[in-house]
Amino acid sequence: MEFYEKLNLLMSITNTKNSSLAHYLKLDPSYISRLRRGERKFPNNIEYIDMIALYFTKMLKIESEKDSKAFKENIIQWLSDENDESIDSILIRYVNLGNEENKKHIMTERIDKSMIQKDFEVYFGIEGKREAALKFLNLVIEEEKPQTLLLFSDENLSWLIDDLNFFREWSILMHEVIEKGNEIEIIHTITRNFDEMLSAIRGWMPFYLTGHVKPYYYPKKRDGVFQRTLFVASNTAAIEATSVFYEIKNTANILTFDKKTIDALKREYLNYKALCKPLAEIFTEKTKIQYYMKLFEFEKTQRNTVFKSSYPSILTMPIELYNSISDKQTLNLPKDLIDIYEENILKLPETLNKNSFTEILESDILESKEDFSKNKPYNFLSGKDLYHSSEELLLHLKNCIYLLENHPDYNLMLLTGENVRNYNFYLKEGVGLFVWDANDNGVVIYFDEENIVEAFWDYINYELKLDKLNKDVKEKVINTLKEKI
Question: Please, which domain of life does this record's source organism belong to (predicted)?
Fold first, then answer.
């Protein structure tokens, strides 16, 4: 792996924002963003690598001084290409090792499949399910050839989400499973309670954004008496479990290595999947035309909207600026989409009389001293995207100030640090949700399943307190923007 790939992986695993690391290193956030994409070479300076290692050591709050020093040295060696050990092994070894309760979750040793003597192993209860799941993922990682993992569970999710240390370890292993070239198909349960559904959305979003996960859901109601777990890796192992009314404290979780049993469980999974529908559409450069068609239909619908990105939306751009940029740049977009952008920009004042539009930007947009010409404010898959120069960005933000001052249903939020996640989104109430990686990795996900869209809408409103955006809050944002520009 190149340095930029290692840095990006480390930041993704630990949910570190560009702005947070940039502030610590006293660098520009846009420079960190370019480092992660491999567009800039990292200075050949051991002091910077030492500071990066120290940052992640502090962030992970490793308890003992001995483990803290060892972790830092491992990160320095790993980033310096002096250590080929996988990052998950390094992280797992040192995170929360001082906690005796968590030691039983740690699996620092890889499992040699040839040493397994039994066809079946049985693990009981919540801790057993966790142990079986980690062993399953470790075995998949050890395989030489990638495969497609088939995952389904409508059991109580407490085994996965209640213990943050276990969830962190599980996430690290899942990242490595994907990094080794494996694909994942997962059937989600969309009839869970609100908290479980939001936890599932948050937990799986980073994996969706790799482009290697295909999610499905069963569209009809079930009786809810029996719940089932099926994890199948055809060339490796499978896990099966059954519970009643979400009670998993004493259930048996069977990990099998028997080929006939694995094949039978695979057929069971595929039979169920045949009754399911895709939960999301995943777009990449190869499916750009389909993406444009979906975006066109989305843009034709006017609803209450929340837009979160690194740069402002095309829709809040003054039409004169849009025309000026369009004249200078060749937009590799379908004409229908260009036309509807122009129409929606012109109709924005009218739209704001009927629907709200909330724009969420990162506060460090006002701090960058570099030219913005290579940053993409909106179109994430068009070959030649519409972009700002630094002067044009300021004109755009001035128009945002005008909208804030003259339209009660337009809001703009400036978020920092922990309030900013590693993905951007474009959400319309009751319509659908686009999500893409904040570092623009070329993958866009679209959800239009009613329960998911509603849950995400409620989650965003709750977490960002959109109902609290009163005149005083607006006034603070306006003053902040005016001070900076």
Answer: Bacteria
The CATH label, of 2.40.50.140, 3.30.870.10, 1.10.8.60, 3.30.360.10, for the domain at 113-279 is 3.30.870.10
* Rounded Cα gap, residues 417 and 403, in angstroms: 26
Q: pLDDT tens, 200-246? A: 667 788 888 888 999 999 988 887 899 999 999 999 999 999 999 88
Percentage helix, strand, coil for the chain under 3-state DSSP, each rounded to 5? 50, 15, 35
Lowest mean pLDDT segment, chosen from 54-58, 59-63, 355-359: 59-63
Q: How many Cα neighbours within 13 Å face the side chain of 456?
A: 28
Helix then strand count (H, E) for the chain reads 18, 15
The residue ranges of every structural domain in the chain are: 3-98, 113-279, 283-484
How far apart are the C-alpha atoms of 273 and 65, rounded to whole Å? 49
- Please check the confidence at residue 415 and state whether its pLDDT lies above 60: yes
Can you tell me the distance from the alpha carbon of 282 to that of 291, in angstroms, rounded to the nearest whole number?
9
What's the pLDDT tens digit per position in 176-195? Answer: 899 899 999 999 987 776 66
Helix (H) or strand (E) holding 402: helix 390-406
CA dihedral sign, ordered 412, 415, 421, 423: positive
Query: Can you tell me the distance from the alpha carbon of 6 to that of 139, in angstroms, rounded to the nearest whole number?
Result: 23
Distance CA(307)–CA(116), nearest Å, equals 51
Note the CATH number of domain 3-98.
Answer: 1.10.260
